């Protein structure tokens, strides 16, 4: 960590997270949340005076901080967090309290044993009124003894599905006092006399969550591309069965079923990578705009980050499992590397916002756009949602030979997203007209709202993929990337075919055409598959896999890996003589009687 300032700008949250990711590994470490969430919160939520005080100390590692938001009883529903911060104007302090068991902070990484500070999200009370969840910077442990401070109970929550080296913890406050200035005051403030000054936008206090959701998109790309690399390399080594009788066993990568399993994960990984870069640039630009007083991009950034987080984590979890199964029985071994990557990636489906709730957050933004469309308002000058205000072709044209730059495929995705958004909006309005409350109507439409959000995110991912590949100037590289783009787009068409067929927009014959284009792409990608994954330049230490090692010596090293098991240090384990051997000997003696 002492080398970080020499390599990167430690005040840049994007650079810090990238440095953290590639130097510390994926399975967690004591500085994980300190770098990923605490420092970005200081950068974006602390006022100038607070930044000058806290940021140098944080960057210099004079303390370790975490981000304590999730509670035992509430996670994604931030409005219902129970931890309270009540302002006392007499002492100019906030009193932090955990009034119930369910208000216990639960899950924050590095909270259990490592951190001595935390960004704590708590319900702000002042002058007898609650103003919602706000962030506070709170000391948890003595900086010399590391023991919890008076009124604070903190510990580790125990073993988890994955991230075994991260000390996820719990935290309770018993009327703990902290100075007024421990409240992050860049956007909202509490004055010494207790008066509350609200932020210009209610989402500004959650900028850290937006950042981490945006970062998750690139993280999911990493996991998909790593596991695709393992699956491709192993499939190029493994031989099984014959395609031509008498010609000998073939590489399993030559089977179309194997290609159909693995290659779409490479394509999706690239799509996620490109979109991850886009949204991180959008985040950085939006934070700069906020510093200059412009908050217009905040709603779009929030909605897009929620939707992308939900879609990419879901597809990454499914894709990792496909890659694991593509490696047969050996994929189930720890030696494959899949258990590590899967246990890390699958957690992202629920942490930093449960996926269904994230899709519904995106849907709220889409419903605002639908209302604007219905009201005849002019389209926003924003390429993320512009298409919703436009009229596309009445029928699908994906089988037209003149589909320059996949415009017809993109219009198919746009059509589906536009139709599903408007249809669920009209249903929402109709249910309210029939007497249901907004909340009841929303719940009755929730499944369709999620479908609309997925369609919107699919449109964004596809458009970004097309635009970024179009920028590539090296024609030899571009040709290979276009094969992956073709596979991605038509694979996505088949994934959403039900919606495209439902209203007659696409025909069954056009669906067959899309499948044909998938099989063409698989055939074109096959000769380059190993070179493609090699180009990602993952080191063997990134893969954590015997099956995916770069030198291809799978079987020799698989045997070495097994032989290195602690169980193989002795031929006969003590329990054999104590239990199993004794049991079998007694059974043999009984059989002689």
What does this structure look like?
The chain contains 19 helices and 11 strands. By secondary structure, it is of the alpha+beta class. A hairpin with a 4-residue loop joins strand 2 and strand 3 (93-97). Helix 3 packs antiparallel against helix 5 (207-237), helix 7 runs antiparallel to helix 8 (338-347) and helix 10 (407-433) packs antiparallel against helix 12 (446-470). It is globular. The mean pLDDT is 93. Its cofactor is FAD.
Task: Provide the descriptors you would attach to this structure in a database record.
593 residues, globular, 19 helices, 6-stranded mixed sheet, Acyl-coenzyme A oxidase, 53% helix, alpha+beta, fatty acid binding, 9% strand, fatty acid metabolism
Walk me through the topology.
Elements: H1 4-7, H2 13-24, H3 32-45, H4 48-59, E1 65-68, E2 84-88, E3 93-97, E4 105-106, E5 117-126, E6 129-139, E7 152-156, E8 169-173, E9 176-179, E10 189-190, E11 196-197, H5 207-237, H6 256-291, H7 298-326, H8 338-347, H9 355-374, H10 407-433, H11 438-444, H12 446-470, H13 475-495, H14 497-502, H15 508-525, H16 529-535, H17 540-543, H18 554-563, H19 574-592
Parallel strand pairs: 1-5, 2-5
Antiparallel strand pairs: 2-3, 3-9, 4-8, 5-6, 7-8, 10-11
What is the tally of beta strands? 11
Shape: globular
Overall pLDDT score: 93
Helix/strand class = alpha+beta
**Rg of Cα set:** 27 Å
Task: Determine the oligomeric state from the structure.
Answer: single chain
Uncertain regions spanning at least 5 consecutive residues = none
Count of alpha/pi helices: 19
The main sheet comes to: 6 strands, mixed
User: Helical amount among residues, as a percent range?
Assistant: 40-55%
Name the beta content range.
5-15%
The ordered H/E elements are HHHHEEEEEEEEEEEHHHHHHHHHHHHHHH
Report the span from N to C terminus.
71 Å
GO cellular component, one term: peroxisome
Binding site for FAD: 70, 109
Domain Acyl-CoA oxidase C-alpha1: 206-367
Pathway: Lipid metabolism; peroxisomal fatty acid beta-oxidation
């Amino acid at each position: 960590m002492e080398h970080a300032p020499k390599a990167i700008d430690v005040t840049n949250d994007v650079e810090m997270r990238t440095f953290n990711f590639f130097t510390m590994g994926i399975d967690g470490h004591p500085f994980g949340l300190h770098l990923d969430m605490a420092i970005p919160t200081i950068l974006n939520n602390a006022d100038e005076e607070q930044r000058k005080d806290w940021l140098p100390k944080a960057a210099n590692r004079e303390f370790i901080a975490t981000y304590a938001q999730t509670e035992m009883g509430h996670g994604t529903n931030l409005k219902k967090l129970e931890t309270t911060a009540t302002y006392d104007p007499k002492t100019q302090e906030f009193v932090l309290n955990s009034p119930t068991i369910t208000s216990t902070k639960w899950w924050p990484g590095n909270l259990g044993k490592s951190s001595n500070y935390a960004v704590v999200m708590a319900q702000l009370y002042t002058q007898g009124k609650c103003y919602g969840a706000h962030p506070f910077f709170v000391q948890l442990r003595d900086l010399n003894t590391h023991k919890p401070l008076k009124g604070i109970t903190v510990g580790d929550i125990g073993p988890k599905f994955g991230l075994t080296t991260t000390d996820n913890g719990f935290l309770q406050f018993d009327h703990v006092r902290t100075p007024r200035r421990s409240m992050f005051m860049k956007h909202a403030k509490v004055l010494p006399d207790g008066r509350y000054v609200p932020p210009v936008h209610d989402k500004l206090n959650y900028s850290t969550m937006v950042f981490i959701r945006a970062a998750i998109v690139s993280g999911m790309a990493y996991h998909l591309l790593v596991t695709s690399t393992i699956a491709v390399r192993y499939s190029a080594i493994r031989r099984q069965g014959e395609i031509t009788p008498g010609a000998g066993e073939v590489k399993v990568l030559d089977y179309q079923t194997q290609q159909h399993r693995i290659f779409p994960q490479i394509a999706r990984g690239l799509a996620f990578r490109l979109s991850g870069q886009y949204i991180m640039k959008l985040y950085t630009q939006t934070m700069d705009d906020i510093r200059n007083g412009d908050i217009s991009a905040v709603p779009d950034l929030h909605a897009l980050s929620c939707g992308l987080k939900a879609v990419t984590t879901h597809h990454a979890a499914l894709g990792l499992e496909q890659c694991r199964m593509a490696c047969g029985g050996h994929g189930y071994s720890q030696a494959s590397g899949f258990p590590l990557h899967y246990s890390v990636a699958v957690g992202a489906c629920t942490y930093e916002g449960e996926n269904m709730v994230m899709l519904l957050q995106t849907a709220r933004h889409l419903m605002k756009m639908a209302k604007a469309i219905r009201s005849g308002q002019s389209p926003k000058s924003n390429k993320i949602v512009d298409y919703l205000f436009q009229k596309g072709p009445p029928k699908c044209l994906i089988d037209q030979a003149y589909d320059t730059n996949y415009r017809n495929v993109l219009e198919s995705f746009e059509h589906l997203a536009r139709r599903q958004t408007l249809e669920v909006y009209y249903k929402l309005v109709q249910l309210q007209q029939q007497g249901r409350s907004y909340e009841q109507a929303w719940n009755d439409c929730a499944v369709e709202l999620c479908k609309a959000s997925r369609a919107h995110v699919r449109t964004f991912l596809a458009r970004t993929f097309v635009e970024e590949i179009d920028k590539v100037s090296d024609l030899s590289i571009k040709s290979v990337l276009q094969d992956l783009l073709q596979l991605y787009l038509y694979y996505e068409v088949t994934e959403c075919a039900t919606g495209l067929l439902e209203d007659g927009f696409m025909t069954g014959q056009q669906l067959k055409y899309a499948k044909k284009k998938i099989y063409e792409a698989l055939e074109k990608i096959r000769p380059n598959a190993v070179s493609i994954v090699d180009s990602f330049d993952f080191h063997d230490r990134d893969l954590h896999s015997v099956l995916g090692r770069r030198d291809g010596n799978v079987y020799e090293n698989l045997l070495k890996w097994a032989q290195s098991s602690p169980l193989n240090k002795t031929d006969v384990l003590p329990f054999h003589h104590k239990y199993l051997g004794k049991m079998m000997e007694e059974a043999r003696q009984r059989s002689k009687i």
